Amino acid sequence: MAELTTFSFQSGTSVLHQLDVRFKILFLILISLVSLRVGFIGLGILTALLTALSVHARLSVRSGLKEARFFLILLLLILMVRMFTTSGTIWVEFGPLSITRPGLFAGLSICWRLVLVAMLGFLFILTTRSSQIKAAVQWFLKPFGFIPTQQIATMMGLTVRFIPVILNQAKETTIAQRARCLGNRKNPLYRMIRLGTPLIRRTFEQADRLTVAMEARCYSEDRTDPILCATRKDWVALFILLLIGGWVLYI
Question: Which stretches within the chain are classed as H helix?
Answer without folding.
Answer: 15-18, 21-35, 40-56, 61-67, 69-85, 101-126, 130-141, 149-179, 188-216, 232-250
